[in-house]
Amino acid sequence: MRVLLWLLVCLTMALPATAQTTPDRSATGGAQTLADIMARQNSVAVDDTFRRENVGDSASLPGVPQLGTQGGVSDPEFWRALRYGSADVRVSAGGEVATVLVQDGGMRWLAYRAGPLRQYGGWLLLGTLALLVVFYLLRGKIPIDGEKTGRTVTRFRAFERFGHWLLGGSFILLGITGLITLFGRVAIAPYLGKEANATFLELGKWVHNNVAWAFIVGLVIIFVMWVVHNLPDRTDLVWIAQAGGIVGSKHPPAKKFNAGQKVIFWSVVLFGASISITGVSLLFPYELPMFAKTFAVVNDIGLSSLLGLGELSETLAPQEEMQLAQLWHAILAFVLMAIVIAHIYIGSVGMEGAYDAMGSGEVDEAWAKQHHSIWLEEIQQEQDTSQGNPTKQSPAD
Ligand code: HEM
């Protein structure tokens, strides 16, 4: 009886093992199957010659015999080295980029792009729009003080307006196509379908990549034309102290540009330049790495510890450089879009007479006196000395 029982136990244990020795592995192309894995987990001895003798062309990979193209015995140290970038990977083409086979920063980038970037970025834009609607409902359109005079002064010449519209028009196109790139998968595909989303993305990418150059040219034009008028001076302090007259009823004196406009100018110039540089580095992948070097400077001057960021990594994989460029590009784009939305509001529905400056280029003297009194006096003095036509003047450039 004991012998019989022993035989039975042996048979039950042997059965699955025997079953595993000749399973049908055609579905996995000869690789292990779920049954093999389950058997191993049940501590059943599995004949693994089908794997051991099938490690691909390991002979052709000197130094890494365990890395066959068709799988091989697992080597945790080796995979860790690969993952953390210390494996000695040699490639015949592709340069440094191709030597990075595993880059786990990619998962952090993906999670950030699909999560906080979309959420905070989206809320920033919607919040800005909502604030402007509330502001409009409370304050309405800022009117011109008193009656219009009917006399105009030239605020912006044709070339200035060209530079502004080149910058503004390209910015709007870049903003819309950028948002499509980021939100298409969640905002277009579920409603209009993946095909429609793919078409939008393809078109958007083409527009974004090409219109970018117009933005860069526009940025250079407005910088050269207006930088002198945007240097901070004492009148800005008065303007800021009186909150620009938007909140109260007084309108503080200002030159060609008031302090609020100077903030917009420097935001556009600095953020726009940074967006452009990272954008160009996205256009030419791996050619313009800049974050490791920037982090080194930020560490050196102590800015990183001041901001509580600790020591920033000064050695970055080429892929990490691209991921950071993409995130920085999009984060700054969101901030600048919020600022520009507020700027567009003031220049259109928010303030009576403001649009004329960029439309025809001619503004009513009453508007000029209200918002840029010092500038108006300057050009009137110029006009007096040159004995020109008092109703149409050249701007005080
Ligand atoms: C001026 C030079 C610019 C260049 C060279 C540039 C280039 C690029 C490139 C190559 C991409 C990646 C597109 C892709 O996935 O195929 C991108 C994405 C993007 N760009 Fe720009 N861009 C520029 C300006 C702007 C501006 C001014 C804005 C905002 C108004 C903007 C907003 C965005 C956004 C939101 C994305 C999507 C980011 C994402 O998918 O996560 N870009 N840009």
From TrEMBL:
The entry's keywords: Cell membrane, Electron transport, Heme, Iron, Membrane, Metal-binding, Signal, Transmembrane, Transmembrane helix, Transport
Cell compartment(s), UniProt: Cell membrane
Membrane protein topology class: Multi-pass membrane protein
Chain residue ranges for the region called Disordered: 378-397
Pfam families: Ni_hydr_CYTB
The keyword Transmembrane is assigned to this record: yes
Main location class: membrane
Cofactors demanded by this protein: heme
Superkingdom, taxonomy of origin: Bacteria
Family to which the UniProt record says this protein belongs: Belongs to the formate dehydrogenase gamma subunit family.
Protein name, as recorded: Formate dehydrogenase subunit gamma
Organism: Parasedimentitalea maritima
Lineage: Bacteria, Pseudomonadati, Pseudomonadota, Alphaproteobacteria, Rhodobacterales
